[in-house]
Protein backbone atom coordinates (compact mmCIF):
# COMPACT_ATOMS: atom_id res chain seq x y z
CA UNK A 1 0.00 0.00 0.00
CA UNK A 2 1.41 3.44 -0.91
CA UNK A 3 1.22 4.90 2.59
CA UNK A 4 3.18 2.14 4.33
CA UNK A 5 6.70 3.09 5.40
CA UNK A 6 9.38 0.42 4.93
CA UNK A 7 10.21 -1.22 8.25
CA UNK A 8 13.88 -0.44 7.87
CA UNK A 9 12.99 3.25 8.20
CA UNK A 10 11.83 2.84 11.82
CA UNK A 11 14.30 4.33 14.24
CA UNK A 12 16.21 6.05 11.42
CA UNK A 13 16.12 9.84 11.12
CA UNK A 14 14.39 11.12 8.00
CA UNK A 15 15.92 14.00 6.03
CA UNK A 16 14.27 17.10 7.44
CA UNK A 17 12.80 18.61 4.30
CA UNK A 18 9.36 18.84 2.74
CA UNK A 19 8.21 15.64 1.10
CA UNK A 20 11.28 13.55 1.94
CA UNK A 21 9.32 10.69 3.53
CA UNK A 22 9.27 7.57 1.28
CA UNK A 23 5.64 7.95 0.14
CA UNK A 24 3.92 7.97 -3.22
CA UNK A 25 2.52 11.47 -2.83
CA UNK A 26 0.13 11.28 -5.77
CA UNK A 27 -1.46 8.05 -4.54
CA UNK A 28 -2.42 9.14 -1.04
CA UNK A 29 -5.99 8.59 0.05
CA UNK A 30 -7.55 9.47 3.39
CA UNK A 31 -5.91 6.73 5.45
CA UNK A 32 -3.66 6.62 8.50
CA UNK A 33 0.04 7.12 7.73
CA UNK A 34 2.57 6.62 10.56
CA UNK A 35 4.47 9.88 10.97
CA UNK A 36 7.34 10.97 13.19
CA UNK A 37 5.71 12.46 16.27
CA UNK A 38 2.79 14.12 18.00
CA UNK A 39 2.58 16.72 20.76
CA UNK A 40 0.68 16.22 23.98
CA UNK A 41 -0.42 18.64 26.72
CA UNK A 42 -1.96 17.77 30.09
CA UNK A 43 -4.39 19.84 32.20
CA UNK A 44 -4.57 19.28 35.94
CA UNK A 45 -5.46 21.45 38.94
CA UNK A 46 -6.56 24.22 36.59
CA UNK A 47 -3.25 24.51 34.71
CA UNK A 48 -1.95 23.32 31.33
CA UNK A 49 1.59 21.92 31.34
CA UNK A 50 4.21 22.96 28.79
CA UNK A 51 3.64 20.01 26.47
CA UNK A 52 5.99 17.33 25.17
CA UNK A 53 6.68 15.56 21.89
CA UNK A 54 6.24 11.79 21.64
CA UNK A 55 7.16 9.37 18.88
CA UNK A 56 4.99 6.37 19.68
CA UNK A 57 1.32 6.63 18.70
CA UNK A 58 -0.06 5.19 21.95
CA UNK A 59 -1.44 7.16 24.90
CA UNK A 60 -1.20 5.88 28.48
CA UNK A 61 -4.71 6.44 29.82
CA UNK A 62 -6.35 5.31 33.06
CA UNK A 63 -9.09 2.68 32.61
CA UNK A 64 -11.55 5.00 34.36
CA UNK A 65 -10.70 7.96 32.16
CA UNK A 66 -13.83 10.02 31.72
CA UNK A 67 -13.64 9.72 27.93
CA UNK A 68 -14.33 5.97 28.06
CA UNK A 69 -17.37 6.17 30.32
CA UNK A 70 -18.94 9.60 30.02
CA UNK A 71 -17.74 10.68 26.60
CA UNK A 72 -15.86 13.93 27.13
CA UNK A 73 -14.10 14.02 23.76
CA UNK A 74 -13.80 16.70 21.08
CA UNK A 75 -11.70 16.78 17.96
CA UNK A 76 -10.89 19.13 15.09
CA UNK A 77 -9.49 18.77 11.62
CA UNK A 78 -7.95 21.16 9.11
CA UNK A 79 -5.16 21.05 6.56
CA UNK A 80 -1.69 22.40 6.03
CA UNK A 81 -0.24 23.06 2.58
CA UNK A 82 3.08 23.47 0.85
CA UNK A 83 2.28 26.48 -1.29
CA UNK A 84 3.43 27.57 -4.73
CA UNK A 85 5.99 30.01 -3.30
CA UNK A 86 7.44 27.41 -0.92
CA UNK A 87 5.71 28.42 2.31
CA UNK A 88 3.95 25.99 4.62
CA UNK A 89 0.59 27.30 5.80
CA UNK A 90 -2.42 26.01 7.69
CA UNK A 91 -5.87 26.85 6.36
CA UNK A 92 -8.50 28.40 8.65
CA UNK A 93 -7.11 26.79 11.80
CA UNK A 94 -8.33 29.68 13.96
CA UNK A 95 -11.90 28.80 12.98
CA UNK A 96 -11.22 25.29 14.27
CA UNK A 97 -9.88 26.70 17.54
CA UNK A 98 -13.03 28.79 17.95
CA UNK A 99 -15.22 25.74 17.34
CA UNK A 100 -13.21 23.64 19.81
CA UNK A 101 -13.61 26.39 22.39
CA UNK A 102 -17.36 26.32 21.88
CA UNK A 103 -17.35 22.54 22.35
CA UNK A 104 -15.30 22.89 25.53
CA UNK A 105 -17.91 25.19 27.02
CA UNK A 106 -20.73 22.85 26.01
CA UNK A 107 -18.97 19.74 27.42
CA UNK A 108 -17.58 21.38 30.58
CA UNK A 109 -13.97 20.99 29.48
CA UNK A 110 -11.09 23.46 29.94
CA UNK A 111 -10.52 25.63 26.89
CA UNK A 112 -7.18 25.41 25.11
CA UNK A 113 -5.57 28.87 24.99
CA UNK A 114 -4.86 30.15 21.47
CA UNK A 115 -1.13 30.36 22.26
CA UNK A 116 -0.99 26.66 23.19
CA UNK A 117 -3.10 25.77 20.15
CA UNK A 118 -0.85 27.59 17.70
CA UNK A 119 2.41 26.49 19.30
CA UNK A 120 1.29 22.86 19.35
CA UNK A 121 0.34 22.99 15.67
CA UNK A 122 3.54 24.79 14.72
CA UNK A 123 5.79 22.32 16.54
CA UNK A 124 3.99 19.24 15.27
CA UNK A 125 4.14 20.44 11.66
CA UNK A 126 7.82 21.36 11.97
CA UNK A 127 8.75 18.03 13.51
CA UNK A 128 6.90 16.18 10.74
CA UNK A 129 8.07 18.34 7.85
CA UNK A 130 9.16 15.21 5.91
CA UNK A 131 5.50 14.18 5.67
CA UNK A 132 4.21 17.41 4.13
CA UNK A 133 3.09 16.58 0.56
CA UNK A 134 5.00 18.78 -1.89
CA UNK A 135 3.23 21.45 -3.88
CA UNK A 136 1.76 20.09 -7.09
CA UNK A 137 1.00 16.59 -5.79
CA UNK A 138 -2.62 17.43 -4.84
CA UNK A 139 -1.89 16.30 -1.29
CA UNK A 140 -2.02 18.10 2.04
CA UNK A 141 -1.05 17.60 5.67
CA UNK A 142 -4.17 16.85 7.68
CA UNK A 143 -3.88 18.25 11.21
CA UNK A 144 -5.96 16.60 13.93
CA UNK A 145 -6.09 18.31 17.35
CA UNK A 146 -8.21 16.53 19.94
CA UNK A 147 -9.09 16.92 23.61
CA UNK A 148 -10.46 14.36 26.03
CA UNK A 149 -11.15 13.74 29.70
CA UNK A 150 -8.22 11.60 30.82
CA UNK A 151 -8.60 11.63 34.61
CA UNK A 152 -10.23 8.69 36.45
CA UNK A 153 -13.90 9.23 37.19
CA UNK A 154 -16.35 6.69 38.59
CA UNK A 155 -19.38 8.93 39.12
CA UNK A 156 -20.91 11.03 36.38
CA UNK A 157 -19.34 14.46 36.11
CA UNK A 158 -16.54 16.39 34.40
CA UNK A 159 -13.07 14.89 34.46
CA UNK A 160 -10.41 16.18 36.84
CA UNK A 161 -7.70 15.88 34.17
CA UNK A 162 -7.61 16.45 30.42
CA UNK A 163 -5.23 15.67 27.58
CA UNK A 164 -4.82 17.78 24.44
CA UNK A 165 -3.04 16.16 21.48
CA UNK A 166 -2.03 17.34 18.01
CA UNK A 167 -0.95 14.89 15.34
CA UNK A 168 -0.60 15.15 11.58
CA UNK A 169 -1.20 12.81 8.66
CA UNK A 170 -0.47 13.29 4.94
CA UNK A 171 -3.64 12.84 2.87
CA UNK A 172 -4.94 12.94 -0.67
CA UNK A 173 -8.57 12.74 -1.71
CA UNK A 174 -11.33 11.39 0.55
CA UNK A 175 -13.45 10.24 -2.39
CA UNK A 176 -10.69 9.39 -4.85
CA UNK A 177 -10.89 8.95 -8.62
CA UNK A 178 -8.06 7.98 -10.94
CA UNK A 179 -8.19 11.37 -12.66
CA UNK A 180 -8.48 13.39 -9.46
CA UNK A 181 -11.81 14.81 -10.65
CA UNK A 182 -14.71 15.63 -8.36
CA UNK A 183 -16.58 12.39 -7.75
CA UNK A 184 -20.36 12.75 -7.71
CA UNK A 185 -22.27 10.52 -5.29
CA UNK A 186 -25.80 9.20 -5.03
CA UNK A 187 -27.34 9.96 -1.65
CA UNK A 188 -30.16 8.50 0.44
CA UNK A 189 -32.50 10.64 2.52
CA UNK A 190 -32.33 9.16 5.99
CA UNK A 191 -35.78 8.51 7.47
CA UNK A 192 -34.82 5.87 10.05
CA UNK A 193 -32.18 7.65 12.15
CA UNK A 194 -31.65 11.08 13.69
CA UNK A 195 -28.25 12.71 13.82
CA UNK A 196 -28.84 15.21 16.63
CA UNK A 197 -31.62 16.59 18.80
CA UNK A 198 -32.95 20.10 18.06
CA UNK A 199 -31.42 21.44 21.29
CA UNK A 200 -28.59 18.92 21.48
CA UNK A 201 -24.85 19.08 20.79
CA UNK A 202 -24.85 18.50 17.02
CA UNK A 203 -23.09 21.85 16.56
CA UNK A 204 -20.03 20.51 18.42
CA UNK A 205 -17.37 18.36 16.80
CA UNK A 206 -17.86 15.73 19.48
CA UNK A 207 -16.63 12.16 19.05
CA UNK A 208 -19.99 10.73 20.13
CA UNK A 209 -21.81 12.46 17.28
CA UNK A 210 -19.79 10.44 14.80
CA UNK A 211 -20.22 7.17 16.68
CA UNK A 212 -23.99 7.72 16.57
CA UNK A 213 -23.80 8.03 12.78
CA UNK A 214 -21.94 4.76 12.10
CA UNK A 215 -24.94 2.45 11.95
CA UNK A 216 -26.88 4.92 9.80
CA UNK A 217 -23.95 5.20 7.42
CA UNK A 218 -23.60 1.43 7.23
CA UNK A 219 -27.33 0.98 6.58
CA UNK A 220 -27.18 3.42 3.65
CA UNK A 221 -24.14 1.69 2.17
CA UNK A 222 -25.90 -1.68 2.39
CA UNK A 223 -28.54 -0.16 0.12
CA UNK A 224 -25.90 1.08 -2.32
CA UNK A 225 -25.63 4.72 -1.20
CA UNK A 226 -22.20 6.00 -0.09
CA UNK A 227 -23.74 8.99 1.66
CA UNK A 228 -27.02 9.82 3.39
CA UNK A 229 -28.80 13.03 4.31
CA UNK A 230 -30.40 13.69 7.69
CA UNK A 231 -33.58 15.72 8.07
CA UNK A 232 -34.56 17.41 11.33
CA UNK A 233 -35.38 15.12 14.25
CA UNK A 234 -38.63 16.87 15.18
CA UNK A 235 -40.56 16.73 11.87
CA UNK A 236 -38.20 15.00 9.43
CA UNK A 237 -39.03 17.83 7.08
CA UNK A 238 -36.12 20.27 7.10
CA UNK A 239 -32.65 19.54 5.72
CA UNK A 240 -29.88 19.21 8.29
CA UNK A 241 -26.66 17.61 7.01
CA UNK A 242 -25.00 14.60 5.44
CA UNK A 243 -23.26 11.93 7.52
CA UNK A 244 -20.02 13.85 7.95
CA UNK A 245 -20.57 16.97 5.84
CA UNK A 246 -22.70 20.08 5.66
CA UNK A 247 -25.40 20.40 3.00
CA UNK A 248 -25.18 23.09 0.32
CA UNK A 249 -27.39 23.66 -2.71
CA UNK A 250 -27.17 26.05 -5.64
CA UNK A 251 -30.68 26.84 -6.75
CA UNK A 252 -31.79 27.12 -10.36
CA UNK A 253 -31.99 30.90 -9.94
CA UNK A 254 -28.41 31.08 -8.63
CA UNK A 255 -28.70 31.23 -4.84
CA UNK A 256 -26.37 29.49 -2.37
CA UNK A 257 -28.57 27.89 0.30
CA UNK A 258 -27.52 25.99 3.41
CA UNK A 259 -29.45 24.95 6.54
CA UNK A 260 -29.75 27.02 9.67
CA UNK A 261 -30.08 24.72 12.69
CA UNK A 262 -27.72 26.23 15.28
CA UNK A 263 -27.82 23.40 17.85
CA UNK A 264 -28.07 20.33 15.62
CA UNK A 265 -25.89 21.02 12.56
CA UNK A 266 -22.10 21.22 12.79
CA UNK A 267 -20.78 24.73 12.34
CA UNK A 268 -18.67 23.87 9.30
CA UNK A 269 -15.57 25.97 8.68
CA UNK A 270 -15.51 24.90 5.04
CA UNK A 271 -19.10 26.05 4.65
CA UNK A 272 -18.17 29.43 6.14
CA UNK A 273 -15.33 29.76 3.63
CA UNK A 274 -17.54 28.77 0.71
CA UNK A 275 -20.24 31.22 1.77
CA UNK A 276 -17.71 34.04 1.77
CA UNK A 277 -16.41 33.04 -1.66
CA UNK A 278 -20.00 32.87 -2.92
CA UNK A 279 -20.48 36.46 -1.71
CA UNK A 280 -17.29 37.39 -3.54
CA UNK A 281 -18.91 35.99 -6.72
CA UNK A 282 -22.04 38.07 -6.05
CA UNK A 283 -24.14 34.99 -5.33
CA UNK A 284 -26.97 35.52 -2.83
CA UNK A 285 -26.24 33.41 0.28
CA UNK A 286 -29.14 32.13 2.36
CA UNK A 287 -28.62 30.32 5.66
CA UNK A 288 -32.12 29.24 6.68
CA UNK A 289 -34.51 26.34 7.13
CA UNK A 290 -34.79 24.28 3.93
CA UNK A 291 -38.02 22.37 3.45
CA UNK A 292 -36.77 19.30 1.59
CA UNK A 293 -39.92 18.13 -0.23
CA UNK A 294 -41.02 21.66 -1.15
CA UNK A 295 -37.63 22.90 -2.33
CA UNK A 296 -35.70 19.94 -3.73
CA UNK A 297 -36.99 20.54 -7.28
CA UNK A 298 -35.47 24.02 -7.19
CA UNK A 299 -31.91 22.71 -6.71
CA UNK A 300 -29.62 22.84 -9.72
CA UNK A 301 -26.60 21.54 -7.77
CA UNK A 302 -26.17 19.85 -4.41
CA UNK A 303 -22.93 19.34 -2.52
CA UNK A 304 -21.58 17.84 0.70
CA UNK A 305 -18.94 20.19 2.10
CA UNK A 306 -16.24 19.60 4.70
CA UNK A 307 -12.52 19.72 5.42
CA UNK A 308 -11.65 16.36 3.90
CA UNK A 309 -13.36 16.96 0.55
CA UNK A 310 -14.04 20.72 0.35
CA UNK A 311 -16.99 19.87 -1.95
CA UNK A 312 -18.36 16.50 -3.02
CA UNK A 313 -21.11 16.83 -5.65
CA UNK A 314 -24.31 14.91 -5.00
CA UNK A 315 -25.64 13.43 -8.23
CA UNK A 316 -28.99 12.34 -6.81
CA UNK A 317 -31.04 12.02 -3.64
CA UNK A 318 -33.53 9.20 -3.08
CA UNK A 319 -36.36 9.18 -0.57
CA UNK A 320 -38.56 6.12 -0.60
CA UNK A 321 -39.57 5.44 -4.20
CA UNK A 322 -38.67 8.90 -5.50
CA UNK A 323 -35.30 10.04 -6.79
CA UNK A 324 -34.23 13.59 -7.63
CA UNK A 325 -31.27 14.14 -9.95
CA UNK A 326 -29.12 17.25 -10.02
CA UNK A 327 -27.01 18.90 -12.68
CA UNK A 328 -23.28 19.28 -13.21
CA UNK A 329 -21.65 21.09 -10.26
CA UNK A 330 -20.53 24.15 -12.21
CA UNK A 331 -20.86 26.71 -9.42
CA UNK A 332 -19.72 24.30 -6.72
CA UNK A 333 -16.70 23.36 -8.82
CA UNK A 334 -15.76 27.01 -9.22
CA UNK A 335 -16.06 27.56 -5.48
CA UNK A 336 -14.02 24.42 -4.76
CA UNK A 337 -11.35 25.51 -7.23
CA UNK A 338 -11.13 28.92 -5.58
CA UNK A 339 -10.61 27.30 -2.17
CA UNK A 340 -7.90 25.02 -3.56
CA UNK A 341 -6.18 27.94 -5.30
CA UNK A 342 -6.03 29.85 -2.01
CA UNK A 343 -4.78 26.79 -0.13
CA UNK A 344 -2.06 26.20 -2.72
CA UNK A 345 -0.95 29.84 -2.65
CA UNK A 346 -1.88 30.35 -6.30
CA UNK A 347 -4.14 33.36 -5.68
CA UNK A 348 -4.31 36.08 -3.06
CA UNK A 349 -5.75 35.11 0.31
CA UNK A 350 -7.99 38.17 0.72
CA UNK A 351 -9.70 36.92 3.86
CA UNK A 352 -6.65 35.88 5.89
CA UNK A 353 -7.42 32.16 6.14
CA UNK A 354 -3.82 31.03 5.57
CA UNK A 355 -1.45 31.08 8.56
CA UNK A 356 2.22 30.60 7.75
CA UNK A 357 4.34 28.25 9.84
CA UNK A 358 7.99 29.18 9.74
CA UNK A 359 9.99 25.97 9.48
CA UNK A 360 13.32 27.53 10.41
CA UNK A 361 12.29 29.08 13.75
CA UNK A 362 15.00 28.36 16.35
CA UNK A 363 15.83 27.55 19.04
CA UNK A 364 13.01 25.21 19.97
CA UNK A 365 12.56 22.25 22.30
CA UNK A 366 13.34 19.05 20.36
CA UNK A 367 12.94 16.81 23.42
CA UNK A 368 11.16 13.55 22.66
CA UNK A 369 10.04 11.77 25.81
CA UNK A 370 9.09 8.46 24.25
CA UNK A 371 11.58 7.13 21.77
CA UNK A 372 10.40 3.71 20.58
CA UNK A 373 8.95 3.73 17.07
CA UNK A 374 5.30 3.67 16.09
CA UNK A 375 3.88 0.23 15.33
From TrEMBL:
Coiled-coil region: none
Pfam family, one: Aminotran_4
Cofactors required: pyridoxal 5'-phosphate
Gene3D superfamilies membership: 3.30.470.10, D-amino Acid Aminotransferase, subunit A, domain 2 (3.20.10.10)
Record keywords: Aminotransferase, Pyridoxal phosphate, Transferase
Transmembrane segments: none
Domain of life: Eukaryota
Similarity remark: Belongs to the class-IV pyridoxal-phosphate-dependent aminotransferase family.
Name of the molecule in the record: Branched-chain-amino-acid transaminase
Amino acid sequence: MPWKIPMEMWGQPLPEKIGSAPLDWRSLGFEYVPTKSHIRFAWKDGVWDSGHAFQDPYLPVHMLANVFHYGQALFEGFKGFHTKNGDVCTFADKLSWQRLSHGCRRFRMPEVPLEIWENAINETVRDNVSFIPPYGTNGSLYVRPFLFGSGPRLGVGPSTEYTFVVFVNPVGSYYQTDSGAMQALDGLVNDTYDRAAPLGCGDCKAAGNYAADLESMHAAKRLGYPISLYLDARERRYVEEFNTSNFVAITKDGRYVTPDAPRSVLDSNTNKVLQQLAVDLNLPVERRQIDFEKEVDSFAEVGAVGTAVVVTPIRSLTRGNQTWTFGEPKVLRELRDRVRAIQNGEVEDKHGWMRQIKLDDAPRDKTVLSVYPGL
